[in-house]
Amino acid sequence: MKNLIYTISVFMLLQSCTKEVEIAIPGYEEQLVVDGVIKTGEPAIVLLSSTANIYSPTNLSAYLNGFISGAQVVVSDGVMSDTLIEICTDNLPPGTEELAAAFFGIPVEDLVQLNLCGYFSTSIVGEVGKTYSLEVNVDGETYSSSTSILEPTALDSLYWKPEPPLENHGFSWATLTDPIGSYDAYLWEVKQLNQLEDGTLDPVSYKTFSPFFDDIFFDGLTFDFAYENPINFFDEDVNPDYRGYYEEGDTILVTLSKLGKTEFDFFEKKYNQIYTAGNPFATPTNIPSNIEGGALGIWAGFSPVSDTLYCQP
Fold first, then answer.
1. pLDDT digits (tens, 9 = 90+) for 282-310
2. What is the dihedral of CA 25, 28, 31, 36, to 10 degrees?
3. Domains of the chain
4. Model-level pTM?
């Protein structure tokens, strides 16, 4: 009888703690998305697209339809202004194919089959120390932003060594001296300089799994660090034991770019969200934006410094 009374009491207690919760999911509101970049020695490139409803189709056609044409995009360095021209990848001007392929991260032969449209500067190229403003006019609405190209920081050294127990495969290693007393953020990218099987060079620059980092833990220090090889990580023709490594004899172009704190916060949170997508235990992240006027996205300046990595002991 005591056990019965105890069981009933526990059941009634649990029932009294239940509460029906109703969650009001806000409706979908379309927003402009800006993806703009200006690098040292290169013209400004801006992509415009619209946000997609989470319940909308996710096929290639829906992706291509998300790009926005007919906008007015103006970049200024404080002295000169340039209205960017709209160019689509299926009608690229001669000589711009590799630049577009590097920007989109898609091989040229695939890129020219798509109708991806972007806005390109014809008279302004990035210079260290300059600040660039961006103004976008779409459907009567105006959006603006500003970014700077900072003084770059070059690597002290770049080297390769085998990763035990492997004898001829290893990571890319570098030594970096971070400037003391200032906030510094970096982007690490690589490009393969070995010829492909068809005798051509791969124009695409690849990002590692955590390509953006800042000096919050190493301000003013000199230290060594390593990065994996993102080029062959998903290549099914490569032995799984060697994926993520560079092979002895590889030649790689490594580019270390400097960017500002606002820009770093955007990319760092964006990549965190990409890598934790689908994880029910991940902390929800709102990706910040430096676009004013109600749009999402980023307008980012980069100051790259490149060096060649010869994978030899």
1. 676 788 999 999 999 999 999 999 999 99
2. 70
3. 32-148 (2.60.40), 157-286+302-310 (2.60.40)
4. 0.85
